## 1
Amino acid sequence: MKLLGSLCVFAAGAMAWYCQRQERRNRRRLLAELIAALGRMETEIRLARTPLPRLLGQLAAERRGAVAAFLRTVSRGLTAGEPPATVWERAAAALELPEEDKRTLLSLTEALQGDEESACKAILLAQEKLRSSLAQLEKQRPEEDKRATALCFSAAALVVILLI
């Protein structure tokens, strides 16, 4: 019975470690997808001059997951005639990003309503800030992996020792 309990505790520790790892991986993937979507948006605005609601709809069709939902929400809201700042803020709030990255996205609302040059500059600036955030996450990754591994498996070992 103690052996079964010990296995369950170790399995729980391993599951906690795996969930934390997946959460960090998803955050990095989300940032990378946002950077790619913004890059494509800047190119389309500069070269094709596609209207924003249609452009966001096209980008949403090309993406998946949270970024696609973000772009789709903004596109639908703009098509419905909602104020751009309100739609963009609501969609950005739904993303699972740190506050600093959300503020970076929110800074685009005003610029996207302006002319082509200011919109492209704002998008490039937002891309650079998000790239910096992604690079910082990548830099911290080995340290966080070590810390999470030590914490999860040490806690599981402690509980197993207490069970025995």
## 2
Amino acid sequence: VNKYRAAAYLMSAVFAAIGGIMLGARILSAEVNSGAPYLMDAVAAAFIGFSVFGAGKPNAFGTFVGAVLIGVLQNGLVMLSVPYYAMDIVKGTVLAFALAITYYRRK
């Protein structure tokens, strides 16, 4: 178990470093808080994958489907010209609905 846990932490650190380098190259800056707008999307994708598509178990496929769903939702909101401050409200509502489905299934 310890070997797999260490490997998982190592892989997570490598992917986080690659993501940080790519984000820094994209915005041409190295600010500490530059990835903050992506946090809501990442958390929502993980919880939607966990709750709706994962049947209460964390899995990579459910997280991928949740990320695709959040991406389609984001793109649709942009195409509908929804203001930027309302996008987080819509994504938060979708996240709350997904978590409500999870708790409803457990009861």
## 3
Amino acid sequence: MANTENPTKPDTKELIVTTAFRLFSQQGYRDTSVAQIAKEAGLSKGLMYHYFTSKEELLKGIFAHYQSETVHKMDWDSKAPPLENLKKLVDLSFYYLQTQSELRRFSLLLTLQNTVSEELKGMIATGKKQWEAAFEEIFQFLGYHQPQAEALYLSALLDGVAIRHLATGNYPLSEVKQLINRNYGLTPSS
């Protein structure tokens, strides 16, 4: 249990978000109560409701927190070569799989749950569309005949890699990343 004597407002909100994220990832959204989150965070339920008016609002807060972190990392230099930006996005995708697999699992499970609101599903879809738009822009710069189709293909490919990685304990991420890099010309020829 966390020690939360006199936490500052940003610290308290962050504590609630990270605790809820961990419990939702371990137990599922439906099976985690606000009381459990409060107890685990060392806070009262009343204080939790001060920051988030409902469990659904807390879920949206978690997603918004991690989505903004991802969008921040997605920023690239528009003057950089397109292949450099494509490599950055592919690297970022694999970074999240290697270091933030719980976040990827959490997003995937939310997408598939019937208990999640349409608003939250829309937030997830918006995040996905941001990735696809970034890929499409790069493929346009690279002169691909069908940049939107190529962006959707790469996005689906990365989703498939994520699902396989999450479903198995020994998925060869490094080898798959090397293959994607080679197929898109993101590594120097040997």
